[in-house]
């Protein structure tokens, strides 16, 4: 979850550099989209494991 959040924040930083170079806006948006998808996947995984095992994962 932390890694996906950091990817999102990295995208925000790259997007802020769009003030200097116009193409960086688009690159920042793509990176933020990738980070947001990662966060959503982790939240969905957390919610699905929480419903079936009180927040604990099954042993492997």
From TrEMBL:
List the keywords (alphabetical).
Membrane, Transmembrane, Transmembrane helix
Instruction: Classify the source by domain of life.
Output: Bacteria
Q: Which residues cross the membrane?
A: 25-47
Q: What is this protein called?
A: DUF4175 domain-containing protein
Q: Record the organism.
A: Pseudonocardia yunnanensis
């Amino acid at each position: 979850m932390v890694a996906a959040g950091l990817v999102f924040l990295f995208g925000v930083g790259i997007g802020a550099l769009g003030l200097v170079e116009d193409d960086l806006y688009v690159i920042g948006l793509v990176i933020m989209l990738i980070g947001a998808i990662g966060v959503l996947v982790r939240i969905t995984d957390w919610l699905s494991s929480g419903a079936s095992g009180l927040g604990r994962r099954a042993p492997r």
